[in-house]
Amino acid sequence: MKKELKERIVDGLVAQLKETPDFYLVNIEGLNAKKTSELRRECFEQEIKLVVVKNTLLKRTLEQVAAEEMDLLFPLLEGSTAIMFTRSVNAPAKLIKSFGKKHGKPVLKGALVQESAYLGEDQLDTLLHIKSREELIGDIAGLILSPAQRLVSAIQSSGSNVAGIVKTLAERE
Q1: Is the pLDDT of residue 160 over 70?
Q2: Half-sphere exposure at residue 39, Cβ-oriented, CA atoms within 13 angstroms
Q3: Which of the four, 78, 84, 96, 135, has the lowest number of CB atoms within 10 Å?
Q4: Which residues are CB-neighbours of 107 under 8 A, at least 6 positions away?
């Protein structure tokens, strides 16, 4: 492979990492063409970008990005490696689990999700339960609004003591 082509590949991966910093490293070695095509189709449907790349080029890419946890991923760059780029932090984990259950592959090597490294196949269950930033904001908003919603519904309820107290206080003025 010519040096210019290698540089273009690395530059493309660096741009992809800047756009979608959450990614999974998986082993898809041993999947035949039909199963690989099926995996790519499922990735496309779930808005996951699947890229197979040489380990040396991936290592150069990770060195250029130079995020804190990247160094932990270097030992995983052996054998066949594919990268799953995603905006939804747990979508690849769900795909790996469901597709892997049917076909035995892909196997999780590691992931960098929300600036934390997850190493090894045993981290798949942890990655399945990670919430995205938007989900966390929704949970926090729900927790903040919950007491106010209960108070409003208690005041509006006609059989409630709160409604009677509010009515009595209003009549006193």
Answers
A1: no
A2: 33
A3: 78
A4: 26, 27, 96, 100, 121
**What distance in Å separates the CA atoms of residue 59 and residue 5, rounded to the nearest whole number?**
16
Instruction: Give the C-alpha separation, 28 to 32, whole Å.
Output: 9
**At the top level of CATH, which class does the domain 3-130 belong to?**
alpha beta
CA distance 163 to 172: 14
Residue 33 CA to chain centroid, in angstroms? 26
Q: Which residues contact 114 (CB under 8 A, 6 or more apart)?
A: 22, 89, 130, 133
- 0.85 cut: is pTM over it? no
Count the alpha carbons within 13 Å of 8 in the hemisphere toward its beta carbon.
5
User: Buried b / exposed e across 46-64, counting CB within 10 Å, b at 16+?
Assistant: eebbbbebeeebbbbbbee
CATH 3.30.70.1730 in the chain is located at 3-130
46, 2 Cβ separation under 8 angstroms: no
